[in-house]
Structure formats: structure tokens, C-alpha cells
Design a protein that fits this description.
This protein has one domain. The protein contains 3 helices and no strands. By secondary structure, the chain is mainly α. The protein is elongated, with a radius of gyration of 16 Å.
């Protein structure tokens, strides 16, 4: 593994992290009713409690 490939991997991870946080900030700026409709509070609660949400847990 060369130094350039390591730097490239780190840059890719950094860009993905920035995009995730930017998306989260945009979702947090939406009105509460709209966030509830798309299920965002549930995603945020899951992330804060450190549990992994799966599609199978959403099925009623």
C-alpha cells in the first residue's frame, strides 16, 4: 500500500463523512412534521442509542 493510496482512501472517507453530516443538517432544518413523515427522528434516535436499524425491524 503506497502513501498516495492511503491519502486517497482517507480523502474519500472524509468526503463521505462530510456529505453525511451535510445531509443530516439539511434534514434537521426541515419542519418537525415533515421529518416525522420521512422517519428521520427514528433514524436519529437509533443513531444516538448506538443500535443499528435494519429494514427487517421496520416490518410490522
Amino acid at each position: 500500500m503506497s502513501i498516495l493510496s492511503s491519502i486517497g482512501r482517507i480523502a474519500t472517507q472524509y468526503a463521505a463523512t462530510r456529505a453525511r453530516y451535510r445531509s443530516e443538517r439539511i434534514l434537521l432544518s426541515l419542519p418537525d412534521e415533515l421529518r416525522k413523515d420521512i422517519g428521520f427522528p427514528e433514524i436519529l434516535e437509533t443513531r444516538n442509542s448506538r443500535h443499528v436499524a435494519t429494514f427487517s425491524s421496520k416490518v410490522i
